[in-house]
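Annotators were shown the component list below and the corresponding predicted structure, then asked to write short factual statements about the assembly.
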Amino acid sequence: MSLLIVKDIHKTYGGIEVLKGVSFSLEQGETKVVIGPSGTGKSTLLRCINRLSPPNSGHVWLDGVEVTDAKANINALRAEMGFVFQSFNLFSHLTALRNVRIGPLKVKGMSKDAATKLAMEELERVGLSDKANAYPAQLSGGQKQRVSIARALAMSPKLILFDEPTSALDPELIGEVLTVMIDLAKDGMTMLVVTHEMGFARSVADEIIFMENGVIVEQGTPGEMFANPKNKRTGEFLHKINELYGETD
Amino acid sequence: MAFDWAWLPLLAHGLILTLEITVTCIAFGIALGIVLALMRVYGGKWLSIPASIYIQVFRGTPLLVQLLMVYYGLPSWGISFSAFTSGVLALGLNTAAYQAEYFRGAIQAVKSGQLLAARSMGMSMVQAARYIVLPQAFRIVIPSWSNELILMLKYSSIVFSITLLDLMGVGKRIASHNFRYFEVYIVVALFYLALVFIITQLLRLLEKKVHIPGLGETAES
Amino acid sequence: MLLRGVRINIELLFALLVLGLLVGTLVALLQVYGGRFFGTLASGYAWIFRSIPAIVLLFLFYFGPSEFGVDIPPFFAATLALGLRSSAYQSQIFRGALQAIPHGQMMAARSMGMTRIRAIRLIIIPQALRISIAGWSNEFSSVVKDTTLAYVVGLNEVLRRVRIITDRHYDLAMLAYLTVALIFLLLTYTGNWGLGRLEKRLRIPGLQMMRGGTREA
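Structure shown to annotators:
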C-alpha cells in the first residue's frame, strides 16, 4: 500500500477554487517533485496534506490512516510528517540545537539526553554541528533552511513535505540546501517537493508532477517529461523554466 | 526660602510607601494582565469579550475616578477597603488593562509562521503556545512593561488624595504645615526624577540580560 | 450639575492640548534640528516634564508661586502644569515622526535649492504631522483623563462637583462616580472617533505609521 495517498482534493480560498480535484500517490522511498506556474495551488496542496489548511473535500491517507478524518489524531499524524517551509519558520528564541531538539523532546517525549544527542546527529547530517548554539538571526538563509530540515528529520518522519525550500534564498546559498536534499533522497527518504529547481527535479525525482490551474496536467518520470511531454503546456513550461533557471548541481 | 533638611527622612518614608504601592500594584497588574491577554487571544467568544470590555472600561476612564470610586464610592454600597488596599486595588486594576494590551501585542508579534511550524511537527495548540509563542512574547513585552512600571510609579502619587502618606502625601503635609510649598515640591520632584532615572537604568540592564539576538524583530526567521 | 463640571474639563483639555502642541512642536524641532546645545536642552526639558508626576507639577505650579505672593488661578495653573507636561510627550511623538521621514526627502529638497528651513516647513513637517496622528490620539486619550487631576488644585471641574454631591448625599457616592466614569468613556470614544475620521481624511496613500514604528508602504 502506498505511503501517501491523495485523492480528489478540492480547496477554495476566498471564493476562488484553488485545487480542483488533485489525486496522486507516493510510495515509500520515492521522491516526487511538483512543478508549475506560481499561484496554481502547489503550496496549498502541501498544506492540505498535513491539514494546516484543511481541504474542502477529498481524502488523504498516510500509511493507511486517514489524515482528513475529523476524528483523526492530527497532532500524532503531523509528528510523522516533516514540513519544510519556504520562509524557514525557525523558532527565534531557540538556538539551532534547541530548534531541532524541541520536537523529539516535547512532542515525542524523549529524555533530554536522548533528544539532545539526536538533535546533534541531525545537525551533523546537514553539516551545521558547529552552529548548534547560534540563534536563527545569526544564521544565513541557507543555514536556516538546513537547520529547518534537521528539525524535520529529528522527528524521524515517514515523509517530508518541502514547500519551495529554496525560493527565499540568495542564488549562491541554494546549492547547500539542494545538496542536503539530494543526500536525503539517496538515503531513501520519502519526499514530496514543490520547487522551481529543475536540475534537482531532473536528477533526483522519481516522478515529476506538473500542475496548472489547480489540476494535475501531467505526471511522469523526468526522462519522459523533459524528452516527450504529452501535453503541450508541459512542454512550454519546462522549456521556459529551463531557460530561466538553467541547471543546478 | 529655607528647606529644613530634617524633612528628608520624612520624605524618605513616603518614598518607601510609594515604592511599596508601585511594586504591589504592578505585580498584581501583570498577573491579571496576562490572564486578560490570554483570554483575549486564546479564549473563545465567552472569554475574550468580557476581557475586552474590562480593558476598554479601565483604559477609558480616569485613574483618579477609579481610585475615588474604590475608596469613597464603594462604601456607599457597603464595601470598605483600607486606604492602602484601595490604592493598590485601583492602581492594579487600571494597570492590568494596559498590561493586557501590551502582552496581547507581544503575542501577536510572534510571527505566525512559527506557530505553523510548531503545529506542523505535531504540537498541540497548548504546547505551541507554551513552548514557542509565550516564551517569545514574554521577552518582547519587557520594554512595554518597563514603561508601565515607570508610569505607575508616577501615577502612584495620586494616592495622597485618599490620605495615604506616600512621597507626595508627605510632601503635601510638610509643605502646607510650613508654608514652604515651592522648595518642598521641588525636592519631591527631584526625588521622583531620581527614582525614574535609577529604575530606567535598572530596567535597561534587565532587558540586555534577557536579550536574544533577532527576537521579535522584523527580520525573516 | 455634573455636566457643567465636565465643560470645565473639556475647556482645560483644549487649552492644555494647544499649549502642548505649540511647545511640543518647538521642542521636537529643536531636538532634531537644533544642534548639540539646543538639542540637549530640549531633550532635557522633555525628560524632566515626562518624569515628574502630573500631580507634583500641578502642586508646583499652583501652590509654588503663592509662596512668593503670586496667586495663580487654578485653571491657569492646571493649564500650565498639564500643558507643559503634554508638550513633553507630544514632542516625543513628533520627534519620532520627524525622524521617521527618510533622509532622502531632505536631500531632494536641498538638491533643488531649498534652504533648510524651507525644506522643513514645506516637505518635512506636513508629512510628520500626518504620521503623528496615531501617536497623538494616544496622547489625547491620556490627557482627557488627566484633566480630572486638576481636582487636587481646587479646579471646579467634574470630580470636585462629585465630592460636593457626595458630601451632601453620602449614599449616592458610587452612583455619582459611575456616572462620571460613563461620561469619560463617552468622551474618550468620541475623541478617538473624531481623530480616526481626521486621520482618514488626511491620509496619503503610501505614507503610514504603524503603532510603535513606521513604514512606507
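Statements collected:
1. The longest strand of chain A covers residues 16-26.
2. The CA atoms of residues 57 and 212 of chain A lie 19 Å apart.
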